[in-house]
Input
Amino acid sequence: MSYASALKRSEVLEQLKCKTFDVLIVGGGITGVGIALDAASRGLKVALIEMQDIASGTSSRSTKLVHGGLRYLKQLEIKEVATLGKERAIVYEIGPHITTPIHMLLPFHQEGTFDKFTTSVGLQVYDWLASVKKEERRKMLTVEQTLQQEPLIKKQGLLGGGMYVEYRTDDARLTIEVAKTAIELGAIIATYTKMTNFLYDEQQKVCGVTVQTLLENESFNIQAKVVINATGPWGDTIRKLEQQPLHKYLVQSKGVHIVFDASVFPLQQAVYFDTQDGRMMFAIPRDGKTYVGTTDTFYDGDLSDIYIEQEDRVYLLAAIHSMFPTVDITEANIESSWTGVRPLIHEEGKSPSEISRKDEIWESSSGLITIAGGKLTGYRKMAEEIVDHLVKKFTDRKLRPCITKQLPISGGEVGGSKYFERYVIRKAQLGVRYGISMEESTKLARYYGSNVEQVFAYLQADHPTLPKILYAKLQYGIKHELVVHPADFFIRRTSSLFFDIDTVRKYKEAVLDEMQTILGWNAEQRTMYEHELQAEIVRATTSI
Ligand code: FAD
Output
C-alpha cells in the first residue's frame, strides 16, 4: 500500500519525525505539490505538509482551465502569455486524462471591448506566442456562424466571433495527481498537518519547522535543509512568523463561480465574453451543468472561511443576463458555487484585474524560500524554476536535471495525448466485465486514466447502501488519494459538491458510514465530520 493511502498516515508521520529532509515544502496546493514532484524526480529527499486536504485552498477554486491567459495580451504581458501557452500544451501531454481541449467562443458586439480586427489579431498573436498546433489555431466566425455555435448569445449588435482552443481541467484532481506522482517518486506528504513555527540553527538559518497534526493533535519538529513556503494566499502569514520586514507583499483577490443545471441554462459551447464593466468572464458547459465566473475583488477576510456574497451573485447574474438575454434565470436557480482567492503580488494603484498574475521567488536572510503569485497552468514551470534555484544549494551531490516536461503525472501513462481516446476505449471494455455499462466504464477510464484498473478492482464488491461506482471511487480515494474527511471526497476528489450536489445530499450518510468503518472513527469524530460536510454544503449553496 502506498503512502498515498489514508491508512498509512501514522507511518507517514513517523517518517516526518525521524528523517532530515533536503527540502520541506509548506502548502499542498498545485504550487507545493509541483515543487515536491520536481524535487523528488531530481533525487532530493522531499517532505510536504498541508494543513488541510490537498488542494483545499485556491487550487480547487479556480475557473478550472489550463489556459494561456488570452486576457493578459491586453495588458501586454507577452512573456506571461507565451510561457502559459506553452505550459498548457505540456500539461495536456503529461496528463491528458485531466486536461480536455475545448473550443472557446469569443463573441464581439458593437460597443464591446473587442471588434473583428482586435479579436482576429489578438487570437493570431496568442496562437503564435503559445506555439498553438495548426489544427487548434483560431478561426473567425460570421454572425450566423457565431449564433450557430451558441444560439443563446445576445443577437443585438453582434458582429461575429472568434473560436480558439483552451483546455478544461479539474484543478483539484490535477493537484492530487501531481501529489500522487511525487509520492511515487519518494516524497513524503502529510495532509492535516499545520506548520506553526520555524526552527533555526546557530547561524539563524531556517532548518525545519514545528507542526501540529490536526487529526491527532500532536506537535513535533521536522528537520530540513531548505524550507519552501508554497502557501499561496497564506504566504505572508507564514513569512510574518520570521518577524522580518516584508519588502514586497501579497494581496488577495476573491473570485466566485456559480453553477446552474443545463435545463435552465442550456449552454452548448464554452464562451469567453466581456461584462458590463469591461472585464472578461467565462461560461462553460460541464457534465450537464453550466458554470460561470469569475468575479475579481480585493479580499482581506478570513482565508479559511470565504463565502459567496449577495453582491457577487448579483454581479454574475447581471453579466449572464447581458450576454445571454433569453436565459431566464434568477438566484433561485443557482445550484452550487465556489469561491477562491488569488494570491497576487501587490502593485500600487492597480485594481485586482490589472495586477499581473506572474510569479516570483523570494528568499529571506534566513534562507526561507517563498514562491509568490502564479497560475495553476504554470505550476510545472514554476516548480522547475524554484528547483533549479534549489539545486545550487546541494553542490555536494550530482542531481538529475529536470524531467517533468516528459514525465506523465499519475493516471497520465497512456502513451501521449494522441493515443488517449484509443486507450480509454480499450480500458472501458475491461470495466464492462465488472458489471457496469460501457458509458459508465468510459467515463471512469477518462477520469482516472492509467489508474482506472485500480478503481475497477473496487467495483467487485456489492454495497448495501452505496452505488457500485461511488463505492469504488470512495475506496480508491481513501486507499490511493489521501481522502480522510468526507469533504475531501465530495469536493476535491469527485467535484460532486459543485457539479452533482444531489449525489452529495443523497449519499452523504452512506459515505460517512463507510468512512467510519474503514478509518475507525468514534461517534464523536463521525459527528464532527458530518457537521463539517454540512457546513461545506451550506457554503456552496447559500448566500450571505
Ligand atoms: P493554494 O492552492 O491556495 O495552496 C496553498 C496551500 O497552503 C493551501 O492548501 C493551504 O491550506 C496551505 N497552507 C497554508 N498555511 C499552511 C500552514 N501553516 N501549514 C501547512 N499548510 C498551509 N489559474 C489557472 O491556471 N487557470 C484558471 O482557470 C484559474 N482560475 C482562477 C480562478 C480564481 C477565482 C482564482 C482565485 C484563481 C484562479 N487561477 C487560475 C489561479 C490558480 O488557481 C492559483 O494560482 C493556484 O491555485 C495557486 O495555488 P497555490 O498552491 O499557490 O495556492
